[in-house]
Amino acid sequence: MQNEKTNPWVIAFRVIFTIALVACIAFIFHNSLEAGALSSARSQAIMAKINAILARVDLGPLSEHTIRKLAHFAEFTLEGFLLMLCLRVYTARFVRHISWPLLGGMSTALMDETIQRFIPGRSSQVTDVWIDMGGVVFGALVALVVLLIVRALMAFHHIKKENRRLRAEREELLRQQEEDRLDAAPLRNEQPDRRELL
User: Fold this and answer.
1) Which of 8, 28, 54, 198 could form a disulfide with 59 if both were Cys (CB 3.0 to 4.6 A apart)?
2) Does pTM surpass 0.85?
3) CA gap 164, 59 in Å, rounded
């Protein structure tokens, strides 16, 4: 039994999504390895930019604590999204194996908080693990919706293509039947009338 060749597009997407996922996890761990003072300074810089934008639309301001929690949620949302896309390019039965991205996200969240325990000025909090997991679940659900929409569009396209093929076959069959009928018509006219022979 011969193994089917993997589509080159699938291989390309595997490479792209895997590299993106590894880069995302490396980014998360890099942020966790920053000392408390440096991490706080970066959060304050981001907070100033976001609050300036919110002030234009009469919203805010957000605290540094809120910015940090939103950052946790955002980076783990991206990880959950990429985990789900990676799962899809490695298996067509991604819905059946949805626990894999969740387990991967939970592992990253636990390692992230464990790293922070050993960094000066940082702390490890159970609430952050819950926020991280919330981000993973949200990202995985967004990816799942996107994948299901793509699957539905592809199925619709396949059905339209199959319908066009069937219509073309039917038209060809009708044309052939019409040609056969026209070819047979002169033969009937050429047969002598039995009344003339009597």
Assistant:
1) 54
2) no
3) 53
Residue 108 CB neighbours (<10 A): 22
Entry field: residues in the chain: 198
Smallest CA-to-CA distance from 143 within 96, 87, 84, 103 is with: 84
Of the candidates 143, 149, 137, the residue with the CA atom closest to the CA atom of residue 88: 143
Contact 39, 120 (CB under 8 A): no
Alpha-carbon dihedral 56, 59, 61, 66, rounded to 10 degrees = -130
pLDDT tens series, the chain, 198 aa: 455 677 888 899 999 999 999 999 999 999 999 898 898 899 899 999 999 999 888 887 889 889 999 999 999 999 999 999 999 999 888 778 889 999 999 999 999 999 999 999 888 899 999 999 999 999 999 999 999 999 899 999 999 999 999 998 998 898 888 888 887 766 555 555 555 555
The span from the CA of 93 to the CA of 22, in Å, is 22
Which two structure tokens, joined as six digits, stand for 160? Answer: 């339209």
